Structure formats: structure tokens, C-alpha cells
Amino acid sequence: MTALRARRELGVLLALALLVAFTAADNSRFLSSQSIRDVLLSASILVVLAVGQTVVVVTRNIDLSVGSVLGLTAFATGKLFVAAPGTPLVVAVLAGVGLGALCGALNGALIAAARVPALVITLGTLYVLRGVDHSWASGEQINAADLPRSFLDFGTATVLGVPVLALVAAAVLLVVATWLGSYRVGRELYAIGSEPAAARLSGIPVGARVFLAFVVSGALAGLAGVLHAARYGTVDATVGSGMELQVVAAVVVGGVAIFGGSGTAYGAAIGALLLTTIGSSLAVLRVDPFWQQAAVGGLILAAIGLDRALAARTARRAAARSAADAAAGQDAGRRGEREATHGS
Amino acid sequence: MAHDSLYASPQRRPGAGRGRRRTAWVPRRWDAALVSALLLVVLGSALLVDGFATGRNAQFLLLDAVAIGLVALPMTLVVITGEIDLSVASTLGLCSAVMGQLWLSGWPLELVVVAAVALGAVLGAVNGVFVTAFGLPSLAVTIGTLAAYRGLAFVVLGDQAVADFPGDWTSAAVETAPGGALPWAMVGTALLAVAFGVVLHATPFGRELYAIGSNAEAARFSGIPVARRKFWLFVVCGAVSGLAGVYWTLRYASARADNGEGLELAVVAAVLLGGVSIFGGRGTLAGVCAGVLLLGVLRNALQLADVAADTLDIVTGSLLIVSVVVPNAVAMARARLARKDRHEGTHERKFG
Amino acid sequence: MLRSDRRGRRRGGASRVGVAAVAWTALLATAACGGTTRDENAEPEDRGGPTGEADPDAPLRDDLVVAFLPKQVNNPYFTVADGGGETAVGEFGGEYKESGPTEASASSQVSHVNTLSQQGTDVIALAANDPNAVCGALDSARDAGARVVTFDSDTNPGCRDLFVNQATAEDIARTQVELIAEQIGGEGEVAILSATPNATNQNAWIALMEEELAAPEYADIELVTVAYGNDEDEKSFQETQGLLRSYPDLAGIISPTTVGLAAAARYLSGSEFQGEVALTGLGTPNQMREYVHDGTVESFALWDPAELGYLAAYAGAALASGQITGAEGETFTAGELGDYTIGADGVVVLGPPTVFEEGNVDDYDF
Amino acid sequence: MSLLRLRDVSKSFGAVAAVRGVSFGLDPGVVHGLVGENGAGKSTVVKMLAGVHRPDAGGVEIEGRPVELHRPADAKAAGIAVIHQEPTLFPDLSVAENIFMGRQPTARLGRIDRAAMRRAAEELFARLGVAVDPERQARGLSIADQQVVEIAKALSLDARVFVMDEPTAALTGVEVRRLFAVVRGLCERGAAVLFISHRFDEVFTLCRDLTVMRDGAWVSTDPVADLTVETVVRRMVGREVSALYPREPGANEPGEVVLDVKGLSRAGAFSDIGFEVRAGEIVALAGLVGAGRSEVVRAVFGVDRYDRGEVRVGGRRLPPGSPAAAMAAGVALVPEDRRQQGLVMELSVERNATLTRLRPLARFGLLSGRGERRAAAEWAERLRVKHGRPTDAVGTLSGGNQQKLVLAKWLATSPKVLIVDEPTRGIDVGTKAEVHRLMSGLADEGMAVVMVSSELPEVLGMADRVLVMREGQLTAELPGRRATEESVMFAATGQREGGA
């Protein structure tokens, strides 16, 4: 099973490699360091969001509010710098993450305590948080000039040629993927998504874990908001609108099962990278940009189709195996024990 | 119990039966509650908001509700079978774009309209094939076609806006029945709503949808062709979205690739607010109609009262949350009360 | 699996719904005359044009309700423009309000126009997202007594009384072409980074810039492409990246939209192309100040959006007070801005755009 | 002293008292049986021990000390392990992870040590004497293997009390024997086992003590050695059960061939199945669980597809894969799994009852509530389905009444061929007899009945002809009078020996 999942992620990686190779063959500048930096920069925010979404989706839930959370925290970060220009970077990041976590906690509390479907609740908070963002901003835009130079540098700086934002995203990915894969709590999230009733019976505190998953997703959306503010420098109330579908798309393309229980943060991150790269390479290939969205849609359909095909193959193999087991068992066995005393 | 299963098909939800039974009274009560809320809001707005209680305003309000109302009808049926179609707004946009392109190339408008609706049906059929023949989750499939159809809309019409539709057609889209308050488009939508209501609540087909949404396997064992029913629902959903695209194009006299962007969430919000369970198997069409109108009236009244547009987002979102939290909370409270009663009852027996 | 049902006995439910839908469509189709094609309908209805008599000496009414309906509320550019309108309304003593959609889509302004008309607004100052989509609603608002002034982006001339043009398209196109030619030394490849693909004013400017570039003195400048950033910061940023990657020899970028210009400037300032690739366009001093100072942008142009709103408010008040009817040649006074004359098609021009550069950019605050 | 003792526990749901003042104890090293009709309160007792339900009154003691079981985690901590009939594993996770979920061995920094986990799982399986790959995904494990995983999980928890809720219901003979060996092994190590089953043969083979419950109350606890099946049945039912099987096999003169199956095959499930069923005849399809019997009847009804062969009803060929066409031709299938396949648990009694014939009930395509209610009530009455209001959710009915409702919903279609798959599984003795009488009566009226059953006495007591399947093949056709347990078992297993 592990091998199969790994293959699934390799598949997305392969698609990514093909896309890059094809584009680079057409225009070698696509592989220039500036160009790679650009793609990494563009992808890093989506990667952070996709990693957070993975944590929720493996528990058989969904968080549609991430776009609004990102918008709200991006604006809050800007406001923070306007109010206190000397705020250290770390404090700003913590504040953004904290605000995001708070939004996530709101989702998580409603979903886990009131026991209502995540799709409905997060669709609701998508509206509510966006509305709060709008009425808070009320037409105000935060410009690069309002933000301290150090913060903007954080958005564009590189270490050994790698953008700092991409490093942050990679660190988030590494931490979350390890947490999900190799820590008890992480594995419990998979257990909950795989079979909620069994999770409850085996004593996993399902409500608390689902709550935690939403807090993590919210916190990462908050972090993404800060990164967004640093990277783009201009923040208004519309930041991140419609991003939720892109994030879900990245997660699905990356092989995280929409019904929970399987998929990895690495896969989701590769999915996010693939979606971003499609955007850039279509631009480089001078394909009519109108085709971009259609291509993304096609990719999503292909990805879930592939998942289904792989799952069907596993099921067939399992069936074949257990049929073989049964045949072997029946040849050797008999049912005497039960039948002998039956109805005596 | 609900949160661990969100959009899982019913058989993947062990223990759901128990949770459902406990709240089985809710749907009937919810749509009734919603209708009363609607009446209250209408009454309150008429008294408190200047300019609300006029025929002209009713016309504006109802015109704005037509597109959401149209798409909400088949969406209700789709959600009751436990599926969802997020591609409706993109279908609307693609049909609108194609409509513009065909009109540009000189097709007669009558044919263009039929072609747009037919195209909607085909797009719905594509969703249906992915969901029923390949067995893929409709949430993921229709997020995919959401992107794909919108993308195709831009491919078809690009950045143009086709606007030179004949005036008698575009004015027919906003014209009202004698009396001035009721747009013909809303009359059509209402007739369609009645048709959908009858189909859902009083025909074998409708009954089968509830059975499918509650337990698809048992439905199959009862001889109901589950896949075929779902497939046709997606087709109908696409066709009605195409029809909504035609309406949208004529009403705004503008065929554009971005028409109706984001409408899918508004439709889903209205349907869920209307008391349809996202898990399928529960909900009424009356509730959904009340949900559509409630959101429309609120939007209109708040705008008239000069409340900023962002407040409307907050209200919509909160209503949506309330629509699932309140029935659940009431059910839980009732269960607790019932337990308490029983305890008191046993005490009485003991000491009495 | 889809099962074929040869018995046909249980067919029906779904197709009944389908029939109902098709029937309704057919009803809609037959509602109008049969066989309507585009050719028969070539002439769009034009019910606009000035009506009634102008009285140039009529005083400005002080009881006017003036509503600003921007493309999108919470958009900083329109916040400034509407602010100018508010100042003007304050001067002549009317009631000011702002109302609008949160997303800039064609259809979303319609319900706001309807509401404003329902509220008995005297003047609607509108920046249209789409030239046609709001027309029906505007007609109905004008029937109900409102005067409609468009600013920034016009509707079909038939649907409004006046259009307050921020600068003539020719002026804008010429200024930008001059600026970019100067910055790239008169030769090389240039690209345009526009807003949404169907933004009326953008497309008009682009067309005129193409014309301008065809002139002999710009023979060495080649316009290679037009990219669309949808007036979204992020998209504009990415489109800039794409332009530089696709066109290695690109010498300059013109972005006739504030969002696009700021995003492009930010990209350039953080990339190896800073100072190498010239950038100009339309932008606000506040957004661009930093990039002018750090050398990313030499100069850019814009009108003052506050003045635009201010003028629109006065134009609307003049209409509603009966000073003007919107006919060509009429004049009115717009407070501090002085006198304006209505041109052809009911257009009032604010004036040529201002060019901002290192020397003057700090003098403005918007 | 008992390892675990229930003291006077009671539990009510709404107005229904599910368990009233039940007390009994489990001794270390002993398998203790628990029997009772459906609705007798066995499952509620299990759920209280699992920490899923809290007793309203009374309590649980472990080694004489009272323990509070508020959550499943409490039961776990108290050393109580519950193995459910259908184990609840995490299908996406590996077997080893399923065993150690929440308690995975960790290495540095709290990271899970997968190698150590694998070793520990292998050790557990070695102790149980079974071979399961700890690294494989739990999805696709047979039910027997899933139970083994559950037992391994319990062992790893150092559980001392094992509660097994109908663990053998879905097992084959070999698997049952392996399970019994495992259970005996547990007892040798001093564990106490509570074993719940509907099958007396298993109870009498495995258990030392036996507790009987009826209507939520404790009836008796005795050593098995002092009991006979008859006494136990009498205690369970609370009355004498006379003739369990009302039918005299072969008494009816069979009529024309109604159902004709030829050469039916589906890869991996069954091959070349052919048989005829005549009007007025009950034909049993016997064999081990997994022999392909249910698959055959599902293919006949059209719920599943088949690769080759044909099904004819009254001479007309049925299109494959269309239950609707099969229903139109007069075939009805009462499926194996009542809760998942037979009924829509969320819908009301009347909606379920009319689900199979909505179209005939509709006038001008419309259904009227009254007509529907009348039709539903008529059949519910004829089968004496005990229910509250017809608008109550069907989930409120007892298992036996649910089964009667499934029968009612199908009989209402006036079928020519009635296929029943495990018609009496998991229903109480009283209702069982009613169902048997009903089937017998239907055959007398000329219906062709196909019965799939794993209960040999039922097969022998009801069938005019017995078809036996083994590994997807039809291996024997025996006339009802001549069929014996021996001959059926021989055909079902391919072996001559009968006893253990």
C-alpha cells in the first residue's frame, strides 16, 4: 500500500517533470534560475495552503474557508505594520498564524462540538470571514509603501538563490508531512478519516482531533496570509478570493483521497507545484491564457480518474489474493465442527 | 456524528441511522420555520425599509432571484441523492458564451436558445458519466468541470462580450406580468418549481431519489436503477443551468465568459439553507424555494437600507451555519430534556 | 454502470423533467417572433440623448441625493474617486452615498442600480463593469427620474446622460506611448499588461496605442503582446513574470491599469530585470512612490481620481438641477475645477493626464 | 472470584428499557456464552462493557473493584476488549498500525518506530498462531483475518476480558475452527471470554458457562453441561417452541418451470450454474459461506452482472444487470443484509413497504399519501409486522419485524419467483418460525421459492430440493426427502467425514 501511494505521488511528479521538460524544450529560459525562482515563489503560498488542507481532508472533512482566512490575515498583517511599523517580523508571523488558528478554531469548534458537516460550516465561514475582511478594510488598500522594507525583503529575499518563501513552505511541508506520517496524532487523523466509527470505538478523541486539524489548517492559512502580504506588498479585501477551489484542486491532484484516510502532504505539495507550473508554462508556451483554466479542470478529472483506476486495481488484487487464500483453506478444511452438533 | 462523514455516501457512515432518527423531525419543521422566517423578514422589511413594499422593488427582487432559483431546483434533487454539482455556474457561463458566439455567427436566436440548453444537458451528462459510470465522487468531479467549463467559456468567447441581442428578447427577460410586480421569468421559474416539487414529492421518481440518498444499496436492491437516476439528474441539472445561462444572457443583454461566476456557492448555500441535508435523503423543495427567496429578500432589503454589501456576506454565511447548527442543537437539547424527564419519571415511580 | 433498459417500463421520471425544461425553453423561444437572427437586429435601440430644455442659470439644488456606484466597493482607486465625489456633494450641500458590489462582475451592479432607483436617488454616478449589462436597469432608473453620469468606464451612450472621461483616450494613449518611447530610447519590443480582457476603456486605449505606435517615429518599436492581469494583483504579478520569460528581448512594459502597474513594478524591483526593462503606465503616486525612488520606474501617468469623482458629482448635480441636459456644447461649473463644456456623445473630459516622476511624485497623496 | 462482574445494570433508550437489572460474572480462563433472542439486550450489555453506553443504574466490577466505563478508552484501560461481529478496522492503514493505533512504539523525538511496530505485530500473530502480513493494508482482509487483527490488538493492550459479539456469523468452517483455537489459547493464558452467538452448536462446543437473557432481563446462568438446546430455547423464548419447521418436504406436486438458469458464470465468483425452479417448490441453495450462493442469486435478480449464461422466467429471457426487468418479470429478492440492502433505515415503515411498487401505486404518475398508506398497512397487517406509527423510521423496529417488512415489501409485488437470502439470520426463534410458516404457505399457493441458507436444519426442514454449491460450482442436487446433513456437507466440502 505504501508503495502504491508512493507511486501515486511519483505519477504527479512525473507529470510535473514532463511539463517542465516540454516547456523548457520550447523555451530554454523556462529553466533559468530566475524563472525557477519565480515558479517556486508563486507556488509557495499555494503549497502552504494545500498542506494545511491535507490535514483536514485526511480526516474526511474539508475546509473551504482557507481563501477567506488568508485574505483576513493578509489584511491584518498589513494593518499591524501600519499601526506599529516597527513590529518585528517574527511577531507579525506569529500574529498572522494566531489569527488564522483562531479562525480555524471557530470552524473546528462548530464542526466538532455542534457535530455538523464541514462542507456547510466552512462554506458559511467562507462568507462570514470574507464579509468581516471587507467591512474591516472598507476600501482601504495597504501598499508596499506602508510596509517596512524588511518585511517586503522577506517576501523576495533568497538564500543561496532559493527564495525564502519557498524555504518557509518547504519547512512547513516537512514538518507537517512528518507529523502526519510518523507521529501518533498524525496517524490518528488518518484513522479518523479512514473509518470514523472505528476511530471512536478505539478510543481516539475524534472531536478533539478534528478540531486540531481545523486549527492547523487555519494556522497555515494564516501563515499563507502573512506570506502573501510579504510577497505582494499590496493587500486589499479581495486577496485570496476563490482560492479555496484551487487549494482543493491541488490536494486532489496530489492524490489525497477526498473521502479521507489516504494521501500525503508531499503529494498535495507536488499537486500545488504542478498547478502553478501549468500557469507559468502556458504563459511561456504562449498558449492562449484562456486555455489555462480548462487545462486545470482537465488535470483534476485526470487525477481523480487515475486514483480510481489505481484503487480498482488494488481491490482486484486483494480480491484475487483472498480468493486464493479461501480456496487453499477450503481444500484443507471442513466444516465438521459446526455442523456436527447443529440442531441436536 | 455528522462531522465524520461530510460527503461520504450513506453506506460509508456507520451509525448514521441513529443520528438521523434522532433528528428525523427536523426537515418538516425546518422548512416550515424557514417559510415563517421568510414571511417575517418580508413583513419586517415592508414596515421598516423605505421603498421595499412596492411593485417595482418586487420586480427587481424577483428578477435577481430567478437564476439562483432556477439552478437550485435541480440542485435540490441532486443533493437529495447524496451528490453535488459545483459546475452549475460554469455551465451557465459556457452556455452563455456559446450562445454569444452562435448569435455572432448568424444563427437564429430561437435555435441558439435551444442549442444553449442542449449544450447544458451535454455538459451535465459529462458530469453524470464521470460520477455514475466511473464511480468518482461528484464533489471532486464537479470541481474539475467547474474549472474546465469556465476555461472553455473563455476559449469560446475569449474577452469579448456579445451584447447586440434583439431588444424585444432582452426586455422580455425582465418584463412583468400585468400588475408590474411579477416578472414573467419568475412565473416560469415558479411553474418549473411546482413541476420539480410534484416530481420530487408526489411521483415514484421523487420517492426513489430519497431512497437513493438515504441508502443507495438498498435502493438498488429494490430495483431502482441508481446510476441511471443520478445520471439523468446531472443531465437535468446541466440543462437547467444552460437555461439559466440563456436567461442571464438575455437579462443582462450580455453574453460573456465570466457570466455567473461564483454562483455555485450561492446556489448551494440556498439549497442547504433550505434544509436539504448535504448527506442526501432529506429536504423539501418548499424549503429550498423559501431559502432562495429569503436570501433574495435579505439582500434586497439590506441594500435598500444602505447596509454595505459585505454585511450581506456575513448574514448569508451566518444563516448557513445556523441552518445546520440550530436543528442539531435543538435535537441535542431535546434528547437531553427527554433523558431528564425520564429520570424524573423514574424518581416519581420510585418514591410514589 | 449505466444500464440500458430495454423494457422501457420504468423510464419516464427523468425524461419528464427534461420535457418540462425543454417545454419552458420552447415557450420562451416562441414568446418572441419566429426566426430572429442577428442581421435583422443590427440597429441597437438608442433611447438616450438629451431631452428638455437647459437653463444655464439655474442654481444647483441643495437637496440632491447623489450616489456613487463604483465597479467594486473596497477598491482603493474607486474609494479615492468616490471620496472626491463626496467632497463635491458636501460643497453643494446634497446627500452623498456609496453603494456597490464586492466583486467587479458585469451583472453584479444591476441590483445596486435598481436599489438606488428604488430609493429615489437623484444622481447615479457609475463606473460600469460592462457597457451593456447595466443598460436595462439604468433605463428604468432614468424613467424613475434619476440622472445618470458615468465615470472611468462608460456604458453605451444611450443608457446615460453624461460620461465624465478621465482624459481622452487619445491623450492617454499618446502620453503612455511617449513615456515608454522615451524610456527605451525609441526602439525595442514592448508589451502591454492590461486589466480584464473585456474592460472597455482598456481596450480602447490599447487600440489607440497600437495606432500611435504605427506612426513613423515609432517604427523601431514593436508591440509584441497584450497580457491580462484581470486587475488582480497576483495575476498581474504572474503575467509580468510570464512576459519577461516569453520575450527575452523585451525592452519595456506599458500597464494602463493601477493594479497592473504596481504589481509589475514590484516584480521588476525584486528581479534581475530592475532598471533593465522599462515600465510605465497608469498608477497612483502612493502605490508607485517607492518604485520611482528605487529606480524601477522612471515615470508614469494618471489623472487624479479624486478630481474625476468631484467632476462627476458636479456634472450630475448640474443635470439634476437643470443647468444642462447633456447636449453637446452646454457648459457648467464644477466647483474648484472650473468650467467644463460637454463634447460629442455627451462626454466631458477631465483633462490631460498628469505625468509623475522622481521630481513631483511626493507632491501628491492619493 | 469473577474477573469481571455485572451488578444489576440497567439501561433505557427513550421509553424502552433495553436492559433491566442484569447481573452475572465472567471467570478467568473460562468461555462464557451469552444467548437470547434479538432485542433481548445482549448488544446493549456488550456496548456497556465497551464503554459506548453508560448504565443508568448498577455497575461493572473488575476483580471486585467497581470501574466506570464512560468512554471506549475507559474500557480499554480496564482491560476489556470487544471484538465485534464486523470488525471496525481502518481500511486505509496497515495491519500493524491498526493494532497499535494511538500506542505506536516510538523512537527519538516521539517519532513512530515502524520497524519496532512491525516486529511487535509479528510477535502477536505468532502468539495467536496465525499468519497475517503486518505491513499490508487492512482493506481487503477477510472478515476472519479482520477479527484476528482485532484480537491481536486486544492482546497488545493486555486485555484480560474479551467480549465477542457474534464473531462467527460471517465465518467459514475453517475460520471458525481457527477462531476457536485462538479463543481457547486466550483462556489458557487466564483471560475471561464472553461469547455471544445465535448458533447453539458453537455455544455448546466452546463455552463452559451459559447465560440466557430475555426481554432485557437476566434469566439464568448455568454450566453448559447441565443444559440442553431445548431448555435453552425454552428459556430464551419463554414458552415451548413446538414444530420449528412446518413443512413436509416434497409434499407439494411441483408445477411448471418458472425460473430457468443456464450456464451462468462470472469470473472469480461462480461458473456454469444451471438449475430450474418450479411453481410451488422450495429450492434451497446450500453451501459454505463464500461458496458463491449469494452471488448467484444476486446475478439472477440483476443486481450484479454476469459474464455468460442466461436467466429465463416463465420462458422469457431476462436482460442481464437489470433488477427492474427482473421485477417486471415477477422476480423478488429478499437480500442477505437487511440493514444495508433490504431496507432504507432512515425512511418510514410505509415508505419502505411501498418502495418496490411505487409505479403501480401511482395514478397518472402521481402518488397519493392515502393510497400509499393503505397499501403499506395492508401488507404490514398480513405479515403481522409489529410497528408503532407507519410514519416511524424503520430503524425503530426489531430485527425480526424488519425482516418481515422486507418480505412484505417484496410479496406486495406479487412475485412468481421469491428468492430469499438467509431469511432467518439474526432473528429470534419466534419470528423464525413465523417466517418459515410464511414461506411454506407461499409455496403451497404456487410460488416458486429459492432459499439461500447457511443453517443446515433450515435447509433440511424446508426445502423440496437442495442444490449445493462449493467454490462457485454446483456440486450436488438432492431431493429434500433424501438430503441429510451428511450428504449436504459432503457436497459442500468435498469430503466424506462429518464429525469432529
Summarize the structure.
Chain C: One of its GO terms (biological process) is rhamnose transmembrane transport. The complex is a heterotetramer of chains A (344), B (352), C (366) and D (500). With 344 residues, chain A is mainly alpha-helical.
How would you explain this protein's 3D organization?
The complex is a heterotetramer of chains A (344), B (352), C (366) and D (500). Chain A has 14 helices and 2 strands; from the N terminus they run ααααααββαααααααα. In chain A, 76% of the residues lie in helices and 1% in strands. Chain A has helices at residues 2-26, 33-57, 66-83, 89-113, 118-137, 149-156, 164-182, 184-194, 196-201, 206-232, 243-253, 265-284, 291-332, 336-340; strands at 158-159, 162-163. In chain A, helix 3 runs antiparallel to helix 4 and helix 7 packs across helix 8. The radius of gyration of chain A is 23 Å and the shape is globular. Chain A has a two-stranded antiparallel sheet with strand order 1-2. The model of chain A is unreliable at 327-344 (pLDDT under 50). Residues 1-27 and 344-352 of chain B have low confidence and may be disordered. Helix content of chain B is 74%, strand content 1%. A two-stranded antiparallel sheet of chain B has the order 1-2. Chain B has 14 helices and 2 strands, in the order ααααααβαααααβααα. Chain B has helices at 16-22, 26-48, 55-80, 88-104, 109-133, 138-157, 167-172, 184-202, 204-214, 216-221, 226-251, 263-273, 285-304, 309-351; strands spanning 161-162, 255-256. By secondary structure, chain B is mostly helical. Chain B has a single domain, classed as ABC transporter involved in vitamin B12 uptake, BtuC. Chain C has 2 domains: 65-165 and 305-351, Rossmann fold; 169-302, Response regulator (Rossmann fold, 3-Layer(aba) Sandwich), CATH 3.40.50.2300. Helix content of chain C is 37%, strand content 17%. In chain C, the strands form 4 sheets. Chain C has a 6-stranded parallel beta sheet, sandwiched between helices. Chain D has 500 residues and is an alpha/beta fold. Chain D has helices spanning 42-49, 72-77, 95-100, 114-128, 143-156, 173-188, 200-206, 229-237, 293-301, 323-328, 338-342, 349-354, 358-361, 369-382, 399-411, 429-444, 456-462, 485-493; strands at 4-13, 16-26, 31-36, 57-62, 65-67, 80-83, 161-165, 192-196, 209-214, 217-223, 257-266, 270-278, 282-287, 308-313, 316-317, 331-334, 417-421, 448-452, 465-470, 473-479. Chain D has a 6-stranded mixed beta sheet with strand order 6-7-8-3-9-10, with helices on both faces. In chain D, strands 16-17-18-13-19-20 form a 6-stranded mixed beta sheet, sandwiched between helices. The radius of gyration of chain D is 24 Å and the shape is globular. Chains B and C meet through helix 3, helix 5, helix 7, helix 8 and helix 9 of B and helix 1 and helix 3 of C.
